[in-house]
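input
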Amino acid sequence: MKRNLDTELIHAGEPRPRIRGAVSMPIFCSANFEAGGEESYHDLTYIRLNNTPNHQALHQKLATIENGEAALVTASGMAAISTALLSVLGNGGHLLAQNCLYGGTHTLLTHDFPEYGIEVTFVDVHRPESWSDAVRENTRAFYVESMTNPLVQVGAIDEVPGFCGKHNLVSMIDNTFATPLNFRPLEHGFDLSLHSATKYLNGHSDIVAGAVIGKKQLVEKCLHRLNHLGGSLDPHACFLLHRGLKTLSLRMERQNQNALRLAGFLASHPSVGRVNYPGLPEHPDHQRAKTLFKGFGGVLSFELKAELSAQSLLSALHLPVSAPSLGGVETLVTRPSTSSHSGIPRDERLQMGISDSLIRVAVGIEHPDDLIGDFEQALNSL
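output
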């Protein structure tokens, strides 16, 4: 019987029968496990092979909540991204990639991949008619984000799977910002869905982790690559991620609501010049986001009027923590130019629309009246 996502977050992947009756998944703090006659190295139970009971429970839960055939957890979001891309592209491959990506991914593609003979062409995901011109004989995949960081754009991602099918490419999407609650890419035809599980999936700012979810054959290819690269998630982090996932629905629903209310307030304040949030009707991608997503996510960004200081605003806020990352229960604020996108040359960053004064807000689950009140007093103090 098909169950609702809220229920699967609690019950999918739980061991049956329960281990010694434990209601909460125990932590298996054993690096290695007694062999049982396995003939393949990858079938041995070993932490680095990502197949301990803690890993297996997580893999099943993650696959279930995104309707994937298989899943894999990694030591970080970048471990998930780099492992998946290397597994699909190989030496000499060519990648189509969205032209506004998370800074760490952008740097990986532009600085590290050329050393492996991997080429990348950046395309405008809002212009599907331009994609075919970028395809080459050695193009093997198309990589996009469900919502971009930090401008929260929503491109024509619903057209990517069909395009990839036509050109025999692997379709890959970073679904961190949307989460499985708001968007399930595999149901729209994507081959692989990637997450920085550090963010919403865990939700408590206390671990670093990643996830690869999708077609079994591709996930197994990523697993074998990861086993050699060594980016495995330790059992205690597995336990925390497993626990955090159970409240994803409750947290994300509040964060959807809080971000929409805060975005609306900021858009109406005379000191704010521009707000980037697809939940606002004036956002250029609002209709597409409304069609594709259950909610508009917990991240927004905005710029102050030219004469005002972004850093002064951050200093005047009391509730939000000035720190990178996102997806936790607490609200975080940061300037992408000094954090997530600091590794990108300034000229490139400005071409992407990421100015030095841009402020990103990762909205938490505080009461919205308190958040809005704090932003109001901070803006009025400038």
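quick obs: The radius of gyration is 21 Å.
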